[in-house]
Design goal:
This protein has ten helices and no strands. It is mainly alpha-helical. α3 packs across α9 and α7 packs antiparallel against α8. It is globular and about 45 Å long.
Length: 243
């Protein structure tokens, strides 16, 4: 219980400072002591509340929904299908996959890698990005790859990008919850722990928003990605080295 509290406090703090990262940090750190799908079950309530808040605060939800619905549909379909098809015996592989996903995300962040998605390619790319994101979400509980780089590549205005991320993360959280329910992995105990994790996540987010105005965000992001890279490497190697 203490570890869950500290993990979600830290994850909320990161989200408060950089605007994203709560599921990535939470599932990554919880993955040290439990399987990614178990960690993902604890993520449902705090992720849903914080991302719905982020979504509601933006100026153009309707416009973004009409533009991004193929990706959102792909996220939902990929997450639910992946959860139903994922064998129960792949926990070690899932931990390694989580580590790999975190390392890819961290490396892209440290390199300031930015996709460029031309308008002519958006129609074809959007559902594919959604399906891949959903599959990664089903396996690891992390829903940033490749949705976040894709949304950044659309060159949205800052407030619209933040709201688009909230829309994608809210969709991913709802789809993940449905996937866990269908697989029988979101039972009363997991739901109770997920509600328990909401308070430290919100507290951490409030602290992070206060910290954001007092430190250099670029420096914080760099430290965040370096830490994420190390965590990803640990999770990638642990199933093979019995760490």
């Amino acid at each position: 219980m203490a570890w869950i509290f500290l993990v979600f406090m830290l994850a909320g703090l990161v989200k408060g400072v950089v605007g994203l990262g709560l599921p990535t940090v939470a599932v990554g750190l919880l993955g040290i002591v439990m399987a990614p799908r178990e960690a993902a079950a604890l993520l449902v309530v705090p992720s849903l509340v914080t991302n719905a808040w982020q979504l509601a605060a933006g100026p153009a939800a309707g416009v973004l929904l009409r533009r991004l619905w193929p990706m959102l549909f792909g996220i939902a379909a990929g997450t639910i299908a992946g959860g139903l098809l994922l064998p129960a015996s792949v926990s070690a592989d899932a931990v390694a996959a989580l580590g790999g996903a975190l390392m890819m995300y961290a490396a892209a962040g440290l390199a300031s890698f930015t996709l460029h998605v031309p308008p002519s390619g958006e129609r074809a790319a959007s559902p594919v990005v959604g399906l891949v994101t959903g599959a990664v979400t089903a396996a690891t509980g992390v829903f940033v790859i490749p949705a976040v780089p894709y949304l950044q590549g659309l060159k949205l205005e800052r407030d619209m990008l933040v709201q688009a991320l909230g829309l994608a993360f809210t969709t991913s959280t709802l789809a993940l919850a449905a996937s866990l329910l269908l697989a029988g992995q979101f039972e009363a105990q997991a739901a109770g722990l997920s509600f328990y994790a909401l308070a430290p996540a919100l507290a951490g987010m409030a602290i992070g928003q206060w910290v954001r105005g007092r430190i250099d965000p670029a420096t914080f992001r760099r430290c965040f990605f370096i830490g994420l890279l190390g965590l990803g490497l640990h999770l990638l190697l642990r199933p093979f080295l019995n760490w």
